[in-house]
Write a structure and sequence with these properties.
The protein is α+β, with helices and mostly antiparallel strands. It contains nine helices and seven strands; from the N terminus they run αααααββαββββαβαα. Strands 1-2-5-4-3 form a five-stranded antiparallel beta sheet. It has a two-stranded parallel ribbon with strand order 6-7. It comes from Colocasia esculenta.
Length: 252
């Protein structure tokens, strides 16, 4: 009950019947009304503005804006639905790359687009793009210098990188010449091992294009074991010093 105050344009609460019938009980953890569709409608606008919007951020913002705590999997699936509706399914996007390459070359004569897939599995490996306008702009309007950089793709289904080659134009601004999308598996790997028999034979055979180095600590330990009881201490120290120089010598 809230009667008005005498001679004042206000009212004062005298008693409170704290029973609600307006649906405010939705403000709870895991309420059934917070369906996937509801989550989609709640976060769709933010995903349009910020494609890297995380499920954990969605949970935090929904809790702050609506007073509702939703589980992580519900936020994650809601994001999946929004991303699919905005950008289509990622499998469909990959299947359209070949079509896109042909159309891009037709509409931009002189451009170079190269799509490479695994010949056995037909899985995506890398995609290189250099439009004719970019190549021409580099030739006539940029300094003869290229800057190479990469950035990781922040998408849980695609663990790859975007590689970019840029130059400086006449205004001393960055000018993108070409870029490529590649999987992380395309990176060169440096292996360090203890020269175990199995590793020593298998790594060069399977990873023929990668570098295989040996752990100097293990080499030194094996050297000490082989020299034990054979040489005098001063001579062994000299041999270890020579071995260390050999290990750290600069090679071409």
């Amino acid at each position: 009950m809230a009667p008005s105050c005498v001679h004042r344009p206000k009212f004062a609460i005298k008693s409170l019947n704290n029973i609600h019938s307006c649906g405010c009980d939705i403000m709870s953890n895991g309420h059934p009304r917070t369906s996937k569709k509801w989550v989609v409608n709640a976060v769709k606008g933010k995903l349009v503005d910020k494609p890297t919007y995380r499920a954990s951020e969605m949970m935090r913002d929904i809790r702050r804006d609506y007073g509702i705590s939703i589980p992580y999997h519900q936020a994650w699936w809601g994001k999946e639905v929004v991303v699919s509706s905005l950008y289509s399914d990622f499998r469909t996007s990959y299947h359209m790359l070949n079509w896109y390459s042909k159309r891009a070359v037709q509409s931009n004569p002189g451009s170079l687009l190269s799509l490479e897939v695994d010949p056995e599995t037909q899985r995506f490996k890398r995609f290189f793009i250099c439009f004719q306008a970019s190549a021409y702009g580099f030739e006539v309007g940029c300094q003869p210098m290229l800057f190479l950089d990469r950035t990781h793709i922040k998408q849980h289904r695609v663990q790859g990188v975007i590689l970019a080659a840029s130059a400086l134009n006449g205004n001393n601004e960055l000018f993108t010449v070409a870029y490529s999308i590649a999987l992380l598996s395309d990176r060169r790997i440096a292996f360090l091992s203890d020269r175990g028999k199995g590793l020593k034979e298998a790594i060069p055979d399977i990873f023929s294009n990668d570098h295989h180095g040996y752990c100097f600590q293990h080499i030194m330990q094996n050297f000490n074991d082989q020299c034990a009881g054979k040489y005098a201490t001063p001579f062994k120290k000299l041999l270890r010093k020579i071995l260390q120089r050999i290990a750290y010598v600069v090679t071409e």
